[in-house]
Design brief:
alpha+beta; three-stranded antiparallel sheet; 21% helix
């Protein structure tokens, strides 16, 4: 296995040019990428703790510690969130993030114990290469160790390493995707809203500004896109689906909110998925978005307005994820079709 630090100059990765989730004070991001398949995981670290919520819209989710984020439940702070490939196997990577944080005394202190709280979500990427290769606890540890407040690598790294899109008609007409990030600074208020997302959807990716498909199911001859929704409307048969996809992400802000408010922000952030992916939240997706508030600024804000901005940031991050991806044999990426 190779840590992401070794991949910084790899053609599969590039740094965010127009802002990213680490623009939110209190957020660190680190990737671990295993190029053998490829697959990987992405750790978001909140050393000072963060209030978190979650909203799961896909019908085939793989998650950990999401019940804890329910506003009626006791724990109020998380120390990290993990996004991972590897399907259900990838949830093991959260144990490595816990070990990293425990070694540094970061977590909830109960008696003599330090317990890091690390919710997680996974996507299905086992259809690329050897399915026995998947992120494990050591992968999560290395992702956490690599976490920094610097520019975030995008594309085929971390949780986006094995991501693909446009799979309603099978992998033969699909495209390569990845992970992307974006941020929005709100005037001169000091408020920042950021997003990071690994895009592994059944559907096509749409540019909300133009309404045009930018990546998705390709025509068999390779000249243009099928337009998945147009095919469905025309009555075309589609391949029987399974839990083999999923878009997972995190939105963050530096404003202080409670668990109920950040849960609403997570819910609203799904609008970004709906604007940029079609179809989305299908029976074959486990679409999950976490929201976190780091409380790094004392500026007050309406959580509804922050949720609206989170949806915009999420849509931007989705576009960046597909545009930063690099193709594999038989799986072209946006960059291959737009040279």
């Amino acid at each position: 296995m190779a840590a992401t630090g070794a991949l910084a100059t790899n053609a599969a990765a590039q740094t965010a040019g127009d802002g990213g989730i680490t623009d939110v004070q209190g957020v660190k991001v680190g990737h671990f990428t295993d190029p053998r398949r490829p697959t990987g995981c992405t750790a978001l670290i909140f050393e000072g703790g963060a209030t978190a919520g979650v909203d799961v819209r896909g019908a085939a989710p793989g998650t950990r510690e999401t019940d804890l984020l329910n506003p009626i439940n006791t724990v109020q702070q998380v120390q990290a969130i993990l996004l991972s490939g590897g399907s259900a196997f990838g949830l093991d990577a959260a144990s490595g993030v816990m070990r990293y944080l425990e070694e540094r005394g970061i977590g909830i202190h109960v008696g003599n114990a330090t317990i890091p709280i690390v919710p997680a979500a996974i996507l299905f990427d086992l259809n690329l290469g050897d399915p026995k290769i998947h992120p494990n606890a050591e992968s999560g540890y290395q992702a956490a160790k690599a976490a920094s407040t610097g520019k975030v690598l995008e594309g085929c790294v971390g949780a986006g390493a094995g991501a693909t899109i446009g799979k309603m008609f099978g992998l033969k007409t699909a495209m390569k995707s990845g992970i992307g990030t974006a941020s929005i600074r709100v005037g001169d208020t000091g408020i920042v809203v950021g997003a990071i997302v690994a895009v592994n959807a059944v559907g096509d990716v749409i540019d909300p500004a133009s309404g045009k498909i930018v990546a998705g199911a390709r025509k068999p001859g390779g000249s243009g896109f099928m337009d998945t929704m147009a095919r469905i409307r025309a009555g075309y048969d589609v391949q029987s689906g399974g839990p083999a996809n999923t878009t997972i992400g995190v939105v963050a802000t530096n404003v202080a909110f409670d668990k109920a408010q950040v849960s609403k922000i997570a819910q609203m952030a799904h609008d970004g998925l709906a604007r940029a992916i079609n179809p989305v939240h299908t029976p074959s997706d486990g679409d999950t978005i976490f929201a976190v508030a780091t409380r790094a600024t004392r500026t007050r804000a309406n959580h509804g307005a922050i949720g609206a901005l989170a949806a915009d940031a999420m849509a931007q991050a989705i576009l960046r994820a597909v545009k930063a991806a690099r193709g594999l044999p038989g799986l072209p990426a946006y960059s291959d079709l737009n040279r």
